[in-house]
């Protein structure tokens, strides 16, 4: 039996993405033995995020696990997951992406780009890390906040009166230390993984978006496998995300605890501020979505699933 | 794979083939005959080696160095430093080390520092009796201080790959960086005394005042750049660009030592030297990628693991291993590949990961000027025009001095942790 | 400037690189590269100052700088190959005289043609596929074909330059032509 190598790449390490890859490798091995040799490359060992994305598109890397926000330049429909106000809890994410019918749709929705989704997993909430102690929406006014160069991060920050600055990752800490930056929009586990409590102590937990990570494989490579292997990859992917979901939720809870244990503070908005922000963001979401019908359609599907869960 | 990735490159290197072609030919021959890989991977990885924001520090600081030497800023700075330390034996050598340390506080890239300093200081060092070899060796090795003194691109990458606090790493680098500078300066003084290099001039308040007045705008340059970084006006990468702007303004409007044409010519020279450096970085990144995907780092780690070392012998093994690896990989890619693999082992042995980061950084910094490969050697060679074998001989003593410093820093963790743990 | 001016290059064939069409082309490229680097310095300055003073950071300024520098790197690689000023370990070439040196140059030229030729082919395949996929950059939303094309153009230029030099060096070896000391 011919052995095939499957390189799984990601930008982070020891987080839910890495955990998914490890469990996936085990699940796959249980199904097909040594027919597929998995190799896991965390921490950007195979290059920066845009290079890994190109790698999986062209087949030099078989699989790439990443937050959806880093794939929007490959296909704008990846934006649907990051629309402010869509996912507010891990359970929202679970209800949508693990819905069997949606999951099947998700798997095949990027085939026209040569990518197949084999894993979708709850990653973490997006929070605002700040050096100053910020507890109100007004407190964010005028602060220089590092974001990704994505409208889904830039626009919400602008709406709150903050100044979004899409800086390169290597520049962030020196700039935070010197006051060139006041804070950053970031996934919660990143803050504890890189020990940001040595830089600043405050988090404003806005709860307006949850990061979703997907694992995409190169479709040409996938189709070159035997039917048995193909089925095993799909099954292993689904099994891994079911197993890792609780791990991910617990991991996020743990990071909040690590943050507090190291003297960090977690602030929440007053109910009035929270309501105002959510109302503003839903208007913004409508505007952003109106610009792209394909994203809107995807968002509507997800929205319906989240709302259905809320009704239960 | 051995002949195409080791023997062939050494032959090509010895034949004087451009270094980027040495790497690229090794990769291409391996891809064509030894290990079939999709050709598109070559483009993807080469491009990835260049598409890196932090690399902008190279053209910026190379240009700043070119401007400083052409405009006379560097000349005035050195005269000032000499007037201040006039009496010390080997004063110019000591001033060179001091200048590297100062540039270290501004920039985060070792090659850029060598390029910036080499141009001005090499002829002066030779003229004051150091000999070409030693002068070249001093310049090539002094760049190592740059990535240990914060800010440091290598430490930022270590922090990201090993999940460690970057501010702590920066703090932890200060004392080891100063120790390295101190030991190099001490060595330079010994050489000067033994070779009877006269201490130039002597300290006279009147001369010192005169030199200070003449160097006023030049002295303001490091103050402007450091002040800008530490007040958040610009990042360490951007600082190089601001140093260029400052030097252009001084050269055009205050000293009037350069015309607009001169500035463009200096920029052209800087662009060409930066291009020569960066294409080597890109080609080397393909070698890293090949080794990584072939599981070479994992094999090395498994081998170290199997030795069942104690913390002390583990650190020694890592030092030896990284000095060898530093000959082939540039520090940034070596850190990205090895830090995630080595750090868990270090932690399991009770080694502080911040201390370990400093040890790794210094190791790879030394690797940049140990023969036969090493970006700092190549750049020093290009800036000084010295033949490679002269530089190989010239860096020898400094390799010994800095390896000694490395051993002290390795086995006295307090040096790294004293400041770092105060955060 | 002294160091640059004294960095002479050895070139077979007897015609100095500094004269004629090739010479003025190199001079023009040198100026173009200088102006390009100055442009990047200005973008860097404007970006940092506007961020500090007004809190405005033009989206994609970092990408613009990086991509322009990538283009500059590839163009300067061609210039340096033509002028034989690329960074190398100059041990053997320094002592080699006559036919031996011509022979070493032929080795360099062959390496350039083989390695850069293959890289050109890889670039060509890559760009063909990436342009069909329509991937854009994150900040500027520029088609990724544009920055990637720097390598295609660069390596094609390097291959071509290497091939021209190979022909000249083989002829020089056959004729055992003297080596000319020329300045870039
Ligand atoms: Na530094
Ligand atoms: Na070396």
Task: Give a verbal description of the structure.
The complex is a heterotrimer of chains A (312), B (423) and C (184). With 312 residues, chain A is α/β, with parallel strands linked by helices. Chain A has helices at residues 16-32, 49-58, 90-97, 100-108, 151-159, 169-178, 188-193, 219-223, 227-261, 271-290, 293-311; strands at residues 4-9, 36-41, 63-67, 115-130, 144-146, 163-165, 183-187, 202-204, 210-218, 265-267. In chain A, strands 1, 2, 3, 4, 5, 6, 7, 8, 9 and 10 form a ten-stranded mixed β-sheet that branches. In chain A, strand 1 (4-9), helix 1 and strand 2 form a beta-alpha-beta unit. In chain A, helix 1 (16-32) packs antiparallel against helix 9 (227-261), helix 3 crosses helix 11 and helix 5 packs across helix 10. The longest helix of chain A has 35 residues, at 227-261. Chain A is globular, with a radius of gyration of 19 Å. The mean pLDDT of chain A is 94. Chain B is mainly α. Chain B has one domain (38-422). Chain B is 79% helix and 0% strand. Chain B has helices spanning 2-14, 19-34, 40-50, 57-71, 73-85, 91-106, 110-127, 132-146, 153-162, 166-194, 205-214, 216-230, 236-254, 260-293, 296-306, 311-325, 331-348, 353-367, 375-384, 388-411, 414-420. The longest helix of chain B is centred in the middle third of the chain and has 34 residues, at 260-293. Chain B is globular, with a radius of gyration of 21 Å. The N and C termini of chain B lie far apart (47 Å). Chain C has 184 residues and is mainly alpha-helical. Chain C is built from six helices and two strands. Chain C has helices at 2-6, 20-54, 61-82, 91-95, 98-133, 145-175; strands at residues 9-12, 179-182. A two-stranded antiparallel sheet of chain C has the order 1-2. The two termini of chain C are 13 Å apart. The model of chain C is unreliable at 1-18 (pLDDT under 50). Chain A binds chain C through residues 50, 53-54, 57-58, 73-74, 113-114, 142, 144, 148-150, 154, 163, 165-168, 180, and chain C through 51-52, 55-57, 59-60, 62-63, 126, 129-130, 133, 135-139, 141, 144. Bound molecules: sodium ion (NA) (2 copies). One sodium ion binds at residues 326-327, 367, 370, 373-374 of chain B. Residues 326-327, 367, 370, 373-374 of chain B line the site of one sodium ion.
């Amino acid at each position: 039996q011919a052995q095939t190598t499957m390189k799984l790449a990601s930008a982070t390490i020891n987080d839910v993405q890495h955990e998914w890859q490890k469990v996936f490798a085990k699940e796959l091995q249980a199904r097909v033995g040594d027919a597929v040799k998995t190799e896991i490359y965390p921490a950007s060992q195979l290059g920066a995020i845009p290079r890994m994305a190109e790698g999986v598109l062209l087949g030099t890397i078989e699989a790439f696990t990443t937050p959806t926000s880093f794939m929007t330049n490959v296909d704008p429909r990846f934006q649907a997951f990051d629309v402010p106000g869509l996912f507010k809890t891990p359970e929202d994410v679970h209800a949508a992406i693990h819905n069997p019918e949606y999951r099947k749709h998700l798997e095949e929705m990027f085939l026209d780009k040569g990518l197949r989704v084999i894993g979708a997993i709850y990653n973490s909430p997006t929070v605002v890390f700040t050096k100053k102690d910020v507890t109100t929406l007004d407190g964010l006014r005028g602060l220089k906040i590092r974001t990704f160069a994505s409208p889904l991060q830039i626009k919400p920050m602008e709406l709150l009166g903050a100044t979004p600055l899409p800086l390169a990752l290597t520049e962030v800490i020196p700039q935070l230390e010197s006051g060139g930056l006041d804070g950053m929009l970031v996934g919660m586990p990143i803050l504890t993984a890189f020990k940001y409590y040595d830089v600043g102590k405050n988090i404003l937990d806005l709860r307006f978006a949850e990061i979703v990570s997907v694992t995409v494989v190169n479709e040409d490579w996938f189709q070159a496998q035997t039917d048995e292997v193909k089925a095993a990859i799909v099954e292993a992917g689904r099994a891994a995300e079911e197993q890792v979901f609780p791990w991910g939720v617990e991991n996020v809870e743990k990071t909040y605890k690590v943050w507090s244990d190291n003297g960090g503070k977690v602030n929440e908005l007053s109910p009035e501020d929270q309501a105002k922000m959510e109302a503003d963001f839903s208007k913004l979401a409508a505007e952003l979505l109106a610009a792209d019908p394909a994203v809107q359609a995807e968002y509507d599907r997800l929205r319906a699933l989240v709302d259905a869960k809320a009704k239960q | 794979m051995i002949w195409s990735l080791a023997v062939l490159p050494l032959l090509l290197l010895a034949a004087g083939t451009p270094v980027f072609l040495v790497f690229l030919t090794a990769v291409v021959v391996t891809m064509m005959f030894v290990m079939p890989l999709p050709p598109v991977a070559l483009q993807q990885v080469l491009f990835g080696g260049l598409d890196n924001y932090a690399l902008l520090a190279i053209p910026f600081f190379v240009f700043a160095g070119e401007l400083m030497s052409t405009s006379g800023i560097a000349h005035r700075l050195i005269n000032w430093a000499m007037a201040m330390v006039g009496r010390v034996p080997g004063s110019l050598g000591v001033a060179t080390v001091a200048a590297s340390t100062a540039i270290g506080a501004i920039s985060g890239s070792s090659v850029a520092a060598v390029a910036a300093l080499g141009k001005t200081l090499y002829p002066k060092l030779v003229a004051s009796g150091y000999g070409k070899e030693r002068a070249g060796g001093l310049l090539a090795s002094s760049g190592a201080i740059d990535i240990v003194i914060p800010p440091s691109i290598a430490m930022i990458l270590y922090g990201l790959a090993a999940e460690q606090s970057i501010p702590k790493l920066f703090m932890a680098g200060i004392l080891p960086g100063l120790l390295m500078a101190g030991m190099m300066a001490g060595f330079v003084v010994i050489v000067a005394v033994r070779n009877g290099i006269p201490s130039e001039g002597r300290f006279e308040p009147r001369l010192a005042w005169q030199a200070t007045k003449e160097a006023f705008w030049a002295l303001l340059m490091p103050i402007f750049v450091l002040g800008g970084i530490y007040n958040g006006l610009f990042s360490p990468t951007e600082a190089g660009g601001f140093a260029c702007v400052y030097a252009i303004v001084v050269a055009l409007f205050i000293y009037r030592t350069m015309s607009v044409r001169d500035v463009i010519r200096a920029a052209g020279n800087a662009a060409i030297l930066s291009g020569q450096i960066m294409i080597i970085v890109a080609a080397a990144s393909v070698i890293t990628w090949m080794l990584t995907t072939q599981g070479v780092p994992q094999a090395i780690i498994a081998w170290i693991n199997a030795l069942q070392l104690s913390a002390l012998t583990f650190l020694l093994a890592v030092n030896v291993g990284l000095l060898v690896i530093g000959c082939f990989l540039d520090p940034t890619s070596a850190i990205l590949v090895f830090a995630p693999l080595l750090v868990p082992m270090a932690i399991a042995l009770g080694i502080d990961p911040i201390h370990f980061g400093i040890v790794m950084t210094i190791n790879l910094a030394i690797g940049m000027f140990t023969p036969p490969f090493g970006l700092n050697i190549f750049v020093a060679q290009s800036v000084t025009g010295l033949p490679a074998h002269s530089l190989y001989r010239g860096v020898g003593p400094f390799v010994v001095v800095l390896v000694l410093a490395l051993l002290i820093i390795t086995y006295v963790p307090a040096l790294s942790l004293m400041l770092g743990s105060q955060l | 400037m002294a160091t640059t001016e004294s960095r002479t290059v050895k070139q077979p064939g007897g015609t100095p690189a500094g004269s004629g069409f090739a010479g003025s082309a190199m001079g023009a490229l040198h100026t173009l590269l200088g102006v390009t680097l100055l442009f990047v310095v200005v973008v860097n300055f404007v970006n940092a100052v506007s961020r500090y003073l007004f809190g405005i950071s033009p989206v994609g300024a970092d990408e613009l700088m990086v991509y322009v520098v990538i283009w500059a790197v590839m163009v300067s690689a061609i210039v340096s190959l033509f002028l034989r000023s690329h960074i190398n370990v100059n041990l053997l070439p320094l002592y080699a005289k006559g036919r031996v040196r011509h022979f070493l140059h032929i080795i360099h030229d062959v390496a350039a043609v083989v390695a850069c030729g293959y890289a050109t082919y890889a670039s060509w395949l890559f760009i063909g596929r990436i342009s069909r996929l329509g991937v854009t950059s994150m900040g500027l939303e520029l088609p990724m074909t544009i920055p990637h094309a720097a390598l295609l153009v660069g390596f094609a230029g390097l291959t071509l330059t290497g091939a021209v030099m190979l022909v000249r060096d083989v002829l020089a070896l056959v004729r055992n032509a003297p080596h000319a000391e020329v300045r870039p």
